[in-house]
UniProtKB/TrEMBL annotation:
Superkingdom in the source lineage: Bacteria
InterPro entries to which the protein is assigned, alphabetical: Amidohydrolase, Bact_exopeptidase_dim_dom, Peptidase_M20, Peptidase_M20_dimer
Protein name: Amidohydrolase
A Pfam short name: Peptidase_M20
Length: 401
């Protein structure tokens, strides 16, 4: 893919990744056919273990999850660098028409984690061939349960970082940016993600006589608008925040005023201070809006992933490193963070590091028309995986030079 001359330190790296492309593609497609969700992914774990066979790695399996941790020791002692690839799929029925489409009903690798596993496994092979250039250890983190199951947290609790990790890096593929281009940024790169559940209680009655009841439906409807007003009036405009009411439920038929209405949704922010403020203000708005309608409301907020914050130095360095490893055409600074969330945030809370995105928009598809991640029609250009393998390897070689 690349036509630019890379940094002399990385000469041959992209070519090495390209030579492994058949192996990378085969592993990706094997996993794509058999997606698994959550923390227990036995088929995916078995595929990873098979792919790592014969390499000079110390491999351990998770206890509470089906994670895999593989450690490569360089020829000389030194620090440890962590590379992560997540493993799990999503509850979607695939509609891509691919010859290797999911064979599991209602399950799909719609976020590209199959490519992450394949790229990380090939980078382990590529770095194993370059052990003499490594001063330290590379820890390959194959992580289940990224899609809302806190898989990284489980791995940390089992001792993932106990022996000390100096730097950490993860790639995430995306279908809506140019194939092969690596993008990242210093600071916040992805949002926190919390779920909220609102229970509005009134008093049920006949739909023809609302004056004899306390209807929770108007109160619930008013809360939707009130929350958006709260964002515009209580949250600093320079501190992005999103509150989305994704579900409203009430009632059983047309002529009954229900006793209860419920609202459920998500909160996204790019700083812990804003996160706390939105939690506080949401509860206040809901409480007083309910009272204005004579109802009572309770709010529960379920904490999700923290803000994903790249180290200022490492975040910028990843962009520069990709350019040096593959040429400036294949690296771009990321202007704005995404409001999606990532549990690599747990690692970055403890270790200086960065998350970066790897573009993989299929050739012949306009960026604006490409189905996004989490779509049942999402497609990824497999040729981009060469650059992912090379970027993983370059990060380790640079950190352990």
């Amino acid at each position: 893919m690349s036509t630019n001359t890379p940094d002399p330190r990385f000469v041959g790296l992209l070519e090495g990744a390209r030579s492994m492309q058949p192996r990378t593609v085969a592993l990706r497609r094997q996993i794509h056919r058999h997606p698994e969700q959550g923390l227990q992914l036995p088929h995916t774990q078995a595929a990873i273990l098979h792919a790592l066979e014969g390499l000079p790695l110390k491999v351990t399996k998770g206890e509470s999850t089906t994670s895999v941790v593989a450690v490569l020791e360089g020829e000389r002692p030194g620090p440890t660098v962590l590379l992560r690839g997540d493993m799990d799929g999503l509850p979607l029925q695939e509609d891509t028409g691919l010859s290797y489409a999911s064979e599991v009903d209602g399950n799909m690798h719609a976020c590209g984690h199959d490519t992450h596993v394949a790229m990380l496994a090939s980078s382990a092979r590529l770095l194993s061939d370059r052990r003499d250039a490594l001063r330290g250890k590379v820890l390959f983190m194959f992580q289940p349960g990224e899609e809302g199951y806190h898989g990284a947290r489980y791995m940390i609790e089992e001792g993932l970082l106990d022996d000390g990790v100096e730097k950490a890096f993860a790639l995430h593929i995306t279908s809506t940016t140019k194939s092969g281009v690596v993008t990242s940024r210093p600071g916040a790169i992805m949002a926190s993600a919390d779920a909220f559940h609102i229970h509005v209680k009134g008093r049920g009655g006949h739909g023809a006589m609302p004056h004899n009841a306390l209807d929770p439906v108007p109160a619930a409807a008013a809360m939707v608008g009130a929350v958006q007003t709260m964002l515009g009036r209580r949250v600093n405009v320079h501190q992005p925040a999103v509150v989305t009411v994704a579900q409203i439920k009430a009632g059983t038929t047309t002529n009954i005023i229900p006793e209860v209405a419920t609202l459920d949704g998500t909160i996204r922010t790019l700083s812990e201070a804003t996160r706390k403020l939105v939690h506080k203000e949401l509860k206040q708005v809901v409480k007083h809006t309910a009272a204005a309608y004579g109802c009572h409301a309770e709010v529960s907020i379920v904490p999700g992933y923290p803000v994903t914050v790249n180290d200022d130095v490492v975040g910028q360095h990843v962009v520069d490193l990709a350019a040096k490893a593959m040429g400036p055409t294949w690296s771009e600074p990321m202007q704005d963070p995404l409001m999606g969330a990532e549990d690599f945030s747990y690692v970055l809370q403890r270790v200086p590091g960065a998350l970066a995105f790897l573009g993989a928009c299929p050739r012949g598809i306009d960026l604006e028309e490409a189905a996004p991640n989490h779509s049942n029609r999402v497609l990824f250009d497999e040729a981009a995986m060469e650059h992912g393998v090379a970027t993983y390897a370059a990060f380790a070689l640079d950190a352990l030079r």
